[in-house]
Automatic annotation (TrEMBL):
The protein, known as: Protein YIF1
Main subcellular location of this protein, as a coarse class: endoplasmic reticulum
Coiled coil segments of this chain: none
Alphabetized Pfam families for the sequence: YIF1
Topology term for the membrane: Multi-pass membrane protein
Leader sequence segment: none
Transmembrane segments: 177-196, 208-230, 269-287, 308-327
GO cellular component: COPII-coated ER to Golgi transport vesicle; endoplasmic reticulum membrane; endoplasmic reticulum-Golgi intermediate compartment; Golgi membrane
Keyword terms: Endoplasmic reticulum, Golgi apparatus, Membrane, Protein transport, Transmembrane, Transmembrane helix, Transport
Residue ranges with Basic and acidic residues bias: 8-19
Amino acid sequence: MNYNHSSPRREPGKPKRLIDPSAGLSASTPMPMQMPMPQSPYMYNQQQIPMDNGMAPEYGFKPQPYGYTSPPMQHYQPPENLGDDYASPQFATQLLTQPMVTNMAVQYGNALVGSGKQQFERYVPVSALKYYFAVDTNYVIAKLALLFFPFAHKDWSVKYEQDAPLQPRFETNAPDMYIPTMAFLTYVVSAVLVSGTQERFTPEQLSILASTALAWGVIELIVHIVTLYVMNLETSLSTLDLLAYCGYKYVGMNAALLISLVFRKFGYYLVWLYCSASLAFFLMRSLKLRVIPQNHSPYTASGNKRRLYFILFVAAIQPVLMWWLSYHLV
């Protein structure tokens, strides 16, 4: 017969052990015998180590005794208008007026502008464009008179100062980009005006005219550059010089289109012929000093024939482009 010491037999008449402690507390009959507490895991050598041994808990809370009920948790309500001081415009103004913040913003802005300027100048010669737009009212009037009446002009040389040509406002013979740019914009407006008087204007025509003129200008510039390369000509002309000289044709085109409003096709072709002749004469005399060096012999010399052909080609193609870009508007 096996005798189990760990599970003694319950004698009759003794109360039954309760599993739920709360049930035992609510019972009306007293409990003659207390329940033995379960062995705590903090037992060492049969001695119980107290939970609160004077050391701070690792996770910021203390274990509570058995049967302890914590009070209900109250939700934290932040005070009202806490962020109004930080979101108010007054706070932003005060922050921007701080010297340290202002200096940082100025340094960052200068660095950003400097880097952007360097990247932009890699593709667009800003310093060179300043020279071509250095004009004033007197220069514009004198240049327009020279374009319409070049036959009476005598001195076509460009004056230099310290190996650099004078700015257009100080030298009438110097090429500029202001008159070609304004003449191009005026051409678009004049073309729209002529089409409107004939009741043929559409909104799409404005963009078509501008893009077509720009495309032909780019093609013309590329043709001239390739011609100089193929003919192996070394000149003092730059790309912007060629662009400026080729842009003067819009002045004659505007005059022809405006005259056509009154005299129709007869007035258009009459002004077109005169402006074509004056522009061709102006280009031949202006390009002569830039393409043919002064220390060479006459034009028919072996080295100057190709330069002469290039000048004649540039002067002859301008009337053709003037007619091609404006004849369909009349």
